């Protein structure tokens, strides 16, 4: 009996050791000692710019029958896959967002890595935007390393559109809640495509001039809804339009507008960038009603960047979008609805750029950049478990701590605040509340001085999903996991389950304040 007990104790200790070792391996720091801390500025100088894009579509060899139209593959309900490559197994491409087990059936439109590289005053900055729900900081570092093998850039930023209709690059949307949906080959394709787009854009640089335009009113407010109180939006459309010095033809256009690209909603099984596809197409090729051109496009390469979308900025099937011709209201999730939404934004952007009273042109500009690596605590138990089991493939820089990063880039009259997740608009624009029922009993709102008010730029870009994917960044005075719930609701609001923890917003606000003030000095 003693021998058996001794054997069981040894077996238990060995099992615990193996479990601990496995957890340590999964959570190990992939880039120990890495820091992306940069501070530099330039004098006013001529500008060179280059744009490029690379396709990052997955292969979708197999399709399947969605008999009940719920977007979930259910073999137990009689649903079958069609073995397109005849290898005897279901090669599922799991789509990120909404729920698990949503394999793609086809590709509706091309997914892209779209890049812009600028050079002014001898400093080169490269930004690449991915049609993806997000990428972790480790994947961003991998892109930078690939770029550095071929060219030198003084700063590289990797931004995601946050489309909920592209392959899983995070791990949370696989066959089940316990199985990652990441395909390693596809992940490498995205990393390589992002790096290649940046290198190509750098090699295509030429003398350029830029036009800035913006509409900071709620003119486009009818295209986005807010699902969580307080109802605060990231209103505004901000634009950068680049032309060649030699002939005034278009190099590229940057369009910044804040909303979740999930208009196709949870039952869609076709790969798409959602409404950003129609924004970019409209900017590049123009807006049509049937066969009639109503606004000419600019040509070049269009980039869409997201903003402060926490809270939750989205367009649900309950929210109607008017068609471009004004004769239809689309409520049900559809490509027609996403098209109407994207084309409305593109049309407004094109008309803004052609309104000489609302634009500013520059042939020379100075730059200033401060970037900072930051350490954030991971209090979310589900994220801790996902890291320990390898469900999410990202390193932890310490015990339940993650390395992330922020940056503030000033270019001429514009400022760009790079945010590593989905920040609530009230932190960026004002309107933070401390409603009764918040989990910390906070009676006065925190982070009440909006980040945009700290920025002294004329054009204030808040770029969400930049260089990491840390989830929602929620004001601590609005944090609500436990009853009584905010605003006398009967349940906890959505957001906290997809956030690192309640300290994320206060920590990031402190770091953002410091780098913005540092740029002034």
From TrEMBL:
Show the stretches that span the lipid bilayer: 7-27
Q: Which UniProt keywords apply?
A: Membrane, Transmembrane, Transmembrane helix
Protein name per Swiss-Prot or TrEMBL: Neutral/alkaline non-lysosomal ceramidase, N-terminal
Q: What organism is recorded for this protein?
A: Sinomicrobium oceani
């Amino acid at each position: 009996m003693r021998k058996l007990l001794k054997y069981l104790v040894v077996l238990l200790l060995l099992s615990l050791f193996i479990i601990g070792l496995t957890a340590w391996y999964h959570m190990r720091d992939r880039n120990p000692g890495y820091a992306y801390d940069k501070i530099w500025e330039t004098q006013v100088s001529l500008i060179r710019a280059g744009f490029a894009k690379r396709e990052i579509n997955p292969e979708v060899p197999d399709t399947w029958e969605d008999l009940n139209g719920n977007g979930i593959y259910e073999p137990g309900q009689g649903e079958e896959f069609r073995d397109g490559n005849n290898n005897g197994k279901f090669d599922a491409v799991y789509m990120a967002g909404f729920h698990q087990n949503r394999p793609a059936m086809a590709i509706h439109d091309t997914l892209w890595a779209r890049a812009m590289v600028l050079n002014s005053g001898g400093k080169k900055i490269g930004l690449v935007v991915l049609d993806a729900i997000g990428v972790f900081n480790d994947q961003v570092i991998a892109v930078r390393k690939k770029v550095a093998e071929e060219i030198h850039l003084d700063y590289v930023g990797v931004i995601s559109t946050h489309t909920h209709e592209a392959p899983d690059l995070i791990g949370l949307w696989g066959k089940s809640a316990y199985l990652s949906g990441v395909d390693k080959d596809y992940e490498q394709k995205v990393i390589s495509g992002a790096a290649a787009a940046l290198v190509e854009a750098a090699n295509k640089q030429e003398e350029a001039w830029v036009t800035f335009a913006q509409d900071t009113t709620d003119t486009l407010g009818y295209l986005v809804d807010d699902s969580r109180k307080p109802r605060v939006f990231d209103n505004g459309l901000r634009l950068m339009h680049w032309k060649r010095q030699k002939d005034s033809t278009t190099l590229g256009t940057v369009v910044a507008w804040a909303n979740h690209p999930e208009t196709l909603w949870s039952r869609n099984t076709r790969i798409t960038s959602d409404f950003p596809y129609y924004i970019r197409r409209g900017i590049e090729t123009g807006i049509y009603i049937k066969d009639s051109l109503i606004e000419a496009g600019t040509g070049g390469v269009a980039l869409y960047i997201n903003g402060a979308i926490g809270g939750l900025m989205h367009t649900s099937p309950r929210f109607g979008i008017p068609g471009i011709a004004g004769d239809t209201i689309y409520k049900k999730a559809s490509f027609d609805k996403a098209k109407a939404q994207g084309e409305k934004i593109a049309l407004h952007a094109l008309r803004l750029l052609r309104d000489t009273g609302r634009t500013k042109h520059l042939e020379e500009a100075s730059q200033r950049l401060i970037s900072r690596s930051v350490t954030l605590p991971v209090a979310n138990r589900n994220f801790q478990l996902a890291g320990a089991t390898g469900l999410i493939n990202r390193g932890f820089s310490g015990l339940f701590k993650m390395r992330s990063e922020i940056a503030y880039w000033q270019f001429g009259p514009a400022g760009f605040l790079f945010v590593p997740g989905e920040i609530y608009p009230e932190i960026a624009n004002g309107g933070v509340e401390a409603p009764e029922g918040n989990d910390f009993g906070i009676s006065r709102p925190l982070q009440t001085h909006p980040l945009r008010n700290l920025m002294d730029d004329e054009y204030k870009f808040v770029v969400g999903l930049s260089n990491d994917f840390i989830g929602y960044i929620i004001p601590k005075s609005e944090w609500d996991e436990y009853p009584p719930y905010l605003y006398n609701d009967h349940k906890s609001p959505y957001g906290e389950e997809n956030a690192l923890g309640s300290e994320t917003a206060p920590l990031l606000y402190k770091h953002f304040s410091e780098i913005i003030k540092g740029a002034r000095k």
